[in-house]
């Protein structure tokens, strides 16, 4: 009888290993993050464990909600090229699964993968509204430009069940504190009862992110976000309700959604958008290998061309984090994109400056008593 085979160790997969796609997920790759000191090796124990692991890993995982009691909910902005002072993120991670999301690396700080974990393990800040009331009640607080959902989509699918964003908007409405929100979700229509009255007081603006008009591209690029046509309908619904609404054509990805720039702006303007902005694709930290992997899965014929053009705009690198260029890129191709954007918004009558807010009616929670807290 021959001796039993010795277990064999299989080398860890290379950085840009192409993984099979998971239905409804932007990435199937639980990519290690930059703070992870652990290394995993596949191990064949002679019982078919490698085949079993491969089968299990390709089952589409369900979304897991992890409740968090946040110590604070309002974050200050220290970046000189961002046009707001404060931000609120009711969640960490985002079910939409946009493969290009610049916020994916934030999951690294939680010892979670910026890949699959970012879109399947969602941190829900269940006490967000309570913390916001405390912030507004502070004697030192002064109202300023605030954006809801900068590193997550505040109206991602789980919001329909949890209502954390709704509770935050209720506090903003009660305090009459102006805010802006950027979203890919039609779920914001639910809160029109709060947002529309604020709009009449010049205290809110909404931007819908429309990355493509092609539903097939949108489905693989942003698998759990609303369809392009549904987002345009949301722009129309908000505009008809009197809410100042704009469109974000971001990120611009060369040879992928970049040819659609003018058509997206035209469709948004026709739906009622009055403002617009766009940002070239950014690939910070782990987003770069994730995007490389996605290109090899979904756009293999264009992958080299797309990356070459991106590097032309990013100083020869996948990403350029410098203030002043990270949101615009540099070089001839970046300048051509900016020129196309300027000409299109001018032709369509779209503004590029933020909506002006009225901060004079801000009321700290300590001054909200009785029935006044309802209006």
UniProtKB/TrEMBL annotation:
NCBIfam families, per the entry: rSAM_PA0069
SUPFAM superfamilies hit by this protein: Radical SAM enzymes
Keyword Iron in annotation: yes
PANTHER family the UniProt entry points to: SLR0285 PROTEIN (PTHR43432:SF3)
Top-level lineage group: Bacteria
InterPro entries, alphabetized: Elp3/MiaA/NifB-like_rSAM, MJ0683-like, rSAM, rSAM_sf
Protein name, entry field: Radical SAM protein
Residue span, Radical SAM core domain: 80-317
GO molecular function list: catalytic activity; iron-sulfur cluster binding; metal ion binding
Keyword terms: Iron, Iron-sulfur, Metal-binding
């Amino acid at each position: 009888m021959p001796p039993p085979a010795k277990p064999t160790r299989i080398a860890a997969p290379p950085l840009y290993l192409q993984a099979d796609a998971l239905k409804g997920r932007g990435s199937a790759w639980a990519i290690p993050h930059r703070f992870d000191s652990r290394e995993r090796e596949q191990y064949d124990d002679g019982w078919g464990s490698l085949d079993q692991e491969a089968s299990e890993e390709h089952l589409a995982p369900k979304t897991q909600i992890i409740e968090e009691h946040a110590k604070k909910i309002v974050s200050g902005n220290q970046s000189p090229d961002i046009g707001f002072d404060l931000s609120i993120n009711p969640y960490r991670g985002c079910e939409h699964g946009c493969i290009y999301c610049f916020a994916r690396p934030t999951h690294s700080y939680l010892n979670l993968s910026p890949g699959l974990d970012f879109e399947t393990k969602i941190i829900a800040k269940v006490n967000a509204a309570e913390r916001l009331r405390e912030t507004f009640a502070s004697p030192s607080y002064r109202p300023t430009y605030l954006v809801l959902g900068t590193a997550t989509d505040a109206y991602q699918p789980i919001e329909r069940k949890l209502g954390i964003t709704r509770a935050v908007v209720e506090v903003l409405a009660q305090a009459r504190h102006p805010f802006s929100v950027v979203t890919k979700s039609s779920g914001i229509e639910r809160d029109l009862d709060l947002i529309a009255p604020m709009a009449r007081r010049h205290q809110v603006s909404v931007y819908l992110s429309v990355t493509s008009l092609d539903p097939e591209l949108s489905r693989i690029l942003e698998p759990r976000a609303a369809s392009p046509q549904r987002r345009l309908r949301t722009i129309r619904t908000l505009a008809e309700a009197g809410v100042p609404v704009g469109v974000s054509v971001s990120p611009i990805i060369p040879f992928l959604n970049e040819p659609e720039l003018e058509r997206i702006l035209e469709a948004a303007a026709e739906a009622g958008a009055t403002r617009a902005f766009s940002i070239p694709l950014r690939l910070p930290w782990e987003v770069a290998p994730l995007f490389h992997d996605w290109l090899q899965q979904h756009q293999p014929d264009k992958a080299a061309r797309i990356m070459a053009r991106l590097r032309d705009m990013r100083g020869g690198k996948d990403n350029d984090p410098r203030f002043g260029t990270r949101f615009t890129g540099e070089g001839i191709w970046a300048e051509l994109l900016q020129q196309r954007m300027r000409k299109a918004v001018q032709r369509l009558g779209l503004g590029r400056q933020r909506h002006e807010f009225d901060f004079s009616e801000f009321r700290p929670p300590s001054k909200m008593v009785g029935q006044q807290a309802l209006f």
